[in-house]
Amino acid sequence: xxxxxxxxxxxxxxxxxxxxxxxxxxxxxxxxxxxxxxxxxxxxxxxxxxxxxxxxxxxxxxxxxxxxxxxxxxxxxxxxxxxxxxxxxxxxxxxxxxxxxxxxxxxxxxxxxxxxxxxxxxxxxxxxxxxxxxxxxxxxxxxxxxxxxxxxxxxxxxxxxxxxxxxxxxxxxxxxxxxxxxxxxxxxxxx
Length: 191
Fold this sequence. Notes:
Blueprint: E1 2-7, E2 13-18, H1 22-28, E3 33-37, E4 47-50, E5 53-56, E6 66-68, E7 73-75, H2 80-100, E8 103-105, E9 108-110, H3 114-129, E10 134-138, E11 144-148, H4 149-179, H5 183-188
Antiparallel strand pairs: 1-2, 1-3, 4-5, 6-7, 8-9, 10-11
Helix pairs in contact: 2-4, 3-4
C-alpha cells in the first residue's frame, strides 16, 4: 500500500511511503503530520492532501510561481523590479531577433545578421569608391540580385534605417518597462 505523510495544517505532502500497514507509518510520523492511503499517481510534486483526499495542483502559470499552502493557489513572488528585469531580457531577445532577422529593400529580403551587416557595409564602401560598381548579391531566400552602386548604397541606407528603427522600438519598450508600477503592467508589455 502507498501512503502519503502530510502536514495536517497545510496538506503539504512530505513523503510517500510504501508499507504493508498504517501502523508502521504511525511509528515514523513527524509532529503535526498524518497519513493517508493514496494511489500510485499521487506525489508531492503533483498533489496535496485536502479535506477529501489527494488534490492535484492547478497548472503552474509560470516557472517562477510558488505555491501558497494556505490558499492552495499559485502566486507570483517577484517584486516589480524582478518583473521589469525579466521583461527587459525578453525584450532584448526580441529586439535581437528583429534586428538580425532580415529587412526589405526594393521588394527583396536581405539578411541582417552580424556577418551580413558587415558585408553590406563593406559593399557600400566599395560602391561609394567605384561608380561602375556591380555585384550579384545573395538574398535571404538564396536567390541573387544584381546591384549597381546606387542600389548598394540604398541597401546600406535601408539596413541603417532597419537597425535604427529596431533599436528605437526597443528604447520605447524599455521606457514602458521603467514606467510600469505593477507586475501586471510589466507583463502587458510586448515587443
